[in-house]
Design a protein that fits this description.
By secondary structure, the chain is an alpha+beta fold. It contains nine helices and eight strands. It folds into two domains: 102 residues, Alpha-Beta Plaits (2-Layer Sandwich); 107 residues, 2-Layer Sandwich (Alpha-Beta Plaits). The longest helix has 19 residues. The two termini are 22 Å apart.
């Protein structure tokens, strides 16, 4: 079934040594919020600082399409404080742990699994590989289509299991985000070796060289209550 969801994708700047506390706050308290807003937690990961910006978390939230997202914006922003008044205490606690961040709205590729499908399939990583790919303007759909046909079979052989693939909204079809689960750290090391030496990787780079202009990859560590880590959706189905 085609994925018709919409996603909020976040990079969150953490204050000093509060990353674990922030991850715990975001996931332990999400059950009533997610149920009220019909908004599933896709993942709250610790960004591995040695591979990118630190201290940081990477968060993703899944909603049932653009109208569900609009309803959430209406709830949150149609008041003088531009914040859902029922969540004032919850956000107040969160600000003890974070200092800011950068959000994107993302449309999934039709073949990208939902969080429910990931959980049902038992998709789980000892580490996750996050790709932020800058593509030629107007080519995000093209890149995602090529990825489905040409790259995913190679990636699967290398030990990369697709969790998410999508394109950023409100830009010129020029940004793609992918998240892959990798079994463990030795498997990640093998992926990096393959990126340098596997002929199939070189072929993929050549096939997309005028479409994928640049990319930044980083590593993510699972939050303890992430659905792909526990096998339980957050919030739980009623």
């Amino acid at each position: 079934m085609a994925n018709n969801k919409v996603y909020i994708h976040e990079f969150v700047d953490i204050i000093l040594q509060n990353r674990a506390a922030y991850i715990r706050h975001m996931t332990e308290g999400w059950e009533p919020i997610g149920r009220e807003r019909n908004m599933k937690c896709f993942g709250v990961w610790a960004t591995v600082g040695t591979s990118e910006r630190w201290p940081e978390t990477t968060n993703m939230w899944e909603l049932d399409g653009i109208h569900a997202l609009a309803k959430n914006f209406e709830i949150e922003l149609n008041n003088p404080k531009h914040q859902d008044p029922t969540l004032e205490k919850w956000w107040g606690k969160a600000q003890e742990y974070r200092s800011g961040g950068y959000d994107r709205l993302v449309r999934p590729a039709t073949y990208s699994p939902t969080i429910e499908e990931n959980v049902k399939a038992g998709t789980k990583g000892g580490v996750y590989y996050h790709e932020l790919i800058r593509v030629a303007p107007g080519q995000a759909k093209t890149y995602l289509s090529m990825m489905e046909e040409l790259w995913i079979p190679v990636a699967d052989r290398l030990g990369l299991k697709l969790c998410f693939a999508g394109r950023s909204m409100m830009v010129n079809e020029s940004e793609v985000i992918c998240i892959w689960a990798i079994k463990d750290w030795p498997a990640w090391a093998n992926v990096e070796k393959a990126y340098e030496s596997d002929p199939a990787v070189a072929v993929w780079r050549k096939q997309t060289q005028h479409i994928a202009l640049d990319w930044r990859n980083k590593l993510l560590a699972d939050g303890p209550l992430n659905p792909m880590n526990t096998g339980v959706l957050l919030p739980r189905p009623e």
